[in-house]
Amino acid sequence: MSHPPYVIDELISAKSIAARIETLAREIQGRFGDTDKLVVVGLLRGSFVFIADLVRELDLPVEVDFLEASSYGDGMESSREVRILKDLRGEIGGRDVLVVEDIVDTGFTLSHVMHLLKSRSPARIETIALLDKPTRREVDIKATWTGFEIPDEFVVGYGIDYAQRNRNLPYIGKVRFT
Ligand code: PRP
Predict the structure, then answer these.
(1) What sequence ranges are listed for the domain Phosphoribosyltransferase (predicted)?
(2) What is the span of the domain harbouring residue 76?
(3) Mean pLDDT computed over every residue of the chain
(4) Nearest protein Cα to ligand 1, atom 16
(5) Which end of the chain is flanked by fewer CB atoms within 10 Å, N or C?
(6) Residue 78: pLDDT band by 50, 70, 90 thresholds?
């Protein structure tokens, strides 16, 4: 499949992301400082870079697990369904859980995942999203912690793709078609 030519303009630098993650990690430690173990759940695939950097800033006993959800439309965005393609390996009943998202857009993915994970009765469950596009929201949900609020731009990098490319950029960029 070919795509129209585009360039990527830097929106959030690697340095800004690293600084923000340090601040967020301190806030998470404040909230979960007394935990015996925090299960950090990355939503694949987009969160893999963020979770890798975030857990290395957390001075807490952590376990890392992953879940993959996929959303697909049936022509009606508002009735979008979310399927679980890969479930957690571990149990979260009675545990402290932090769900890590790269970006919250319409909110369907995070809302569905939270509904599912809460049904497993974790002791505490919170969410963190690196990016938030509040103007795109269709479901009333907000992550406990947000890295950056951004306008409705087509973003790539730091785990986020355009047609499976550009996930390896160390910064968040904005796609501009040329
Ligand atoms: C993206 C992103 C979030 C979700 C946000 O995932 O990683 O999980 O969409 O959108 P929403 O708030 O409108 O539900 P995507 O399905 O592109 O998969 P990926 O993480 O594997 O790239």
Answers:
(1) 10-162
(2) 14-152
(3) 95
(4) 70
(5) N
(6) low
pLDDT tens-digit readout, 111-168: 999 999 999 999 999 999 999 999 999 999 999 999 999 999 999 999 999 999 999 9
Q: How many CB atoms lie within 10 A of CB 86?
A: 11
Q: Residue 175 falls within a domain, yes or no?
A: no
pLDDT at residue 80 greater than cutoff 90? no
> Which residue type does 57 have?
E
Amino acid (1-letter code) at residue 70: S
Question: In this structure, which long-range contacts are made by residues 154-160, counting pairs with CB atoms below 8 Å and at least 24 apart in sequence?
Answer: 155/11, 155/103, 155/131, 156/8, 157/8, 158/12, 158/14, 158/17, 158/49, 158/50, 158/102, 158/130, 159/45, 159/46, 159/47, 159/48, 159/49, 159/50, 159/102, 160/46, 160/102, 160/103, 160/131
Q: In this structure, is residue 3 part of a structural domain?
A: no
pLDDT at 68: 97
Number of domains in the chain: 1
Ligand 1 atom with the shortest distance to the CA of 106: 13
